[in-house]
Task: inverse folding
């Protein structure tokens, strides 16, 4: 399983009145992690959009474990949890600098035509990208 990592310096604007990172900012960090994973694998999401495709989120779950604060460095770890004909599930961990897990998450995406939002298989749009996802996807140990 291939795991991409991206560090994010937590800005003051990302915190709430309690001084902790506002929960919705984690969703933005997931997107940053997903984009970094795609880049690390040699592809560009923007290229798909230029070809007329988008990858909407179909499902998202986040489990918050330990608060993060302004000035800390968050590490977003991202991997392909599952990938099949129409859906890709990304897995995430957001870590404190000492390795403590701040949050875990999963997001499920499809690939769709930009104008119609009709699903399309990544294997038809970009066979190399599809093959790479299958190659690096998480394999459950038996």
Result:
């Amino acid at each position: 399983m291939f795991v991409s990592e991206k560090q994010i310096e937590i800005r003051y604007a990302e915190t709430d009145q309690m001084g902790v990172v506002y929960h919705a900012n984690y969703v933005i960090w997931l997107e940053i992690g997903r984009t970094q994973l795609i880049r690390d694998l040699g592809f560009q999401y923007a290229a798909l959009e230029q070809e007329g495709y988008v990858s909407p989120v179909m499902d998202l779950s986040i489990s918050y474990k330990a608060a993060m604060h302004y000035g800390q460095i968050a590490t977003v770890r991202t991997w392909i949890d599952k990938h099949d004909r129409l859906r890709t599930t990304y897995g995430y961990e957001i870590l404190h600098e000492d390795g403590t897990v701040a949050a875990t998450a999963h997001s499920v995406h499809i690939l769709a035509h930009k104008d119609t939002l009709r699903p399309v298989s990544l294997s038809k749009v970009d066979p190399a990208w599809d093959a790479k996802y299958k190659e690096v996807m998480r394999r459950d140990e038996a």
Remarks:
- Residues 4-136 form a domain with the Thiol Ester Dehydrase; Chain A fold (CATH 3.10.129.10).
- Strands lie at 4-9, 53-54, 57-64, 73-83, 87-95, 101-110, 112-113.
